[in-house]
Amino acid sequence: MSLFTSNTLYPVTASIPNGFATQMTDKQKNKIIYLDVSPARTPNLKSPSSNSIVPIHDNLIAPQINKDIIYENIKPVFTILRIMGVLPLTRPRAGLNQFQIASPSMLYSIICYICLVSYVLYLSLHKVQILRTAEGKFEEAVIEYLFTVYLFPMLVIPIIWYETRKIAGILNGWVDFEICYKQLSGRILPVKLYKKALAIAIIIPLLSTSSVIITHVTMVSFNLMQILPYIFLDILTYMLGGYWYLLCEILSVCASILAEDFQQALRHVGPAGKVAEYRALWLRLSKLARDTGIANCYTFTFVNLYLFLIITLSIYGLLSQISEGFGTKDIGLAVTACCSIFLLFFICDEAHYASHNVRTNFQKKLLMVELSWMNTDAQTEVNMFLRATEMNSSQISLGGFFDVNRHLFKSLLATMVTYLVVLLQFQISIPDENQRQMETDENQIPLNETIVAETTKMTTSLATTILTTLAKKKKKN
């Protein structure tokens, strides 16, 4: 293939790079725009050149978001948590989330927590009396102690306070992601989860209140004032599950949106620069997935262990009473066990699904890219993108202790079965009251017979002695 040396229409001398004729200076500009654009490292755009025309207001050149989209979508659940005094988050302006110890939000949270602890301590006297009067089988004592375990979520509130600063960092990271996405695609991030968040904020308090009332009516006769702390803590536990669901769902939705946009970009535009930009945006999303687990590390470690304990005790209460038939008390145990199992599975499954979408979906898109029509730069960028998805893990890990996925749910169930077997064996080894009574009666029968025999012998000996003495006196007389 020869070079263009002269032409009346295009007098500029140029070579043919990559098989395409470069004949005008405008062609060089097109090459820079579509093939040699470096990925956007910061949300701030570079200053326009002196030859470009800058409009007065253009969202594509100056993408400023007045309200962060992610927070607005999950705002109902955050509002419930802030009303409960659990999440002392402050927002000086839209798009900026902070945690300040000396803030009205933190003061309100501390007052709510002190009121809750004081109320529980006031009612604990009645609870202690119930435990002390629990006389009977071993399984009945375990069921009674179950109501003390229901109060454990009080300990998670200070843990959430400690992690609120990290949660604020996650929300700020989502704002940066939205700005970068708007720079790249020219449109606002299309996340529509507000209706789901609103449904969660309404349905969970209603279902939690109903579950607590059913449990206490069927198992222990508490009055309304005594079950208020249980209602509050049960709503908190399941609201944390809804909060976790929304965080994982946002990761899944954003990963799907990014994958579709990436596939469209490869069809219409010279992909070298675009692949680099999408790689930088995907790395942000992958970091948000990892930071989500780190920011909620201690909170959901505690929640998972609490659910594991509740499920174990509830199922043990059901199995221990199965020989006597299904009674009224078992209704509350069955409701508690089913709700806790569902919540634990939901937490593990949503995290597994989010990690799968963030990493595996992008790998599928990259592996399906047709590289034959691309130039060398584009093929290099695609290979680098694929290498980035392999090297950067997108697993949601709770501080490195364990990954939250379906394998975690399977491991917890296996451990739960082990503990249930141990508890049931311990129950079998302890005799019932009827068996103790029968053994006592059997032991008492030979004892009574011995006493009667000894008494008879003593009476006979005494009578013989008296008769012998009288006979001797008569002989002497």
UniProtKB/TrEMBL annotation:
Residue ranges annotated as transmembrane are 106-125, 145-162, 197-222, 242-259, 297-319, 331-348
Could you say which protein family the record assigns here? Belongs to the insect chemoreceptor superfamily. Gustatory receptor (GR) family.
Q: What is this protein called?
A: Gustatory receptor
Q: Where does the UniProt annotation locate this protein? A: Cell membrane
One Pfam family this chain carries? Answer: 7tm_7
Give the bilayer topology.
Multi-pass membrane protein
Instruction: Give the InterPro entries listed for this entry.
Output: 7TM_chemorcpt
Q: Report one GO cellular component.
A: neuronal cell body
A single GO BP term for this record reads: sensory perception of taste
Keywords from UniProt, A to Z, are:
Cell membrane, Membrane, Receptor, Transducer, Transmembrane, Transmembrane helix
Would the keyword Coiled coil be found if you checked this record's keyword annotation? no
Its main localization is: membrane
Source organism, top-level taxon? Eukaryota
Known role: Gustatory receptor which mediates acceptance or avoidance behavior, depending on its substrates.
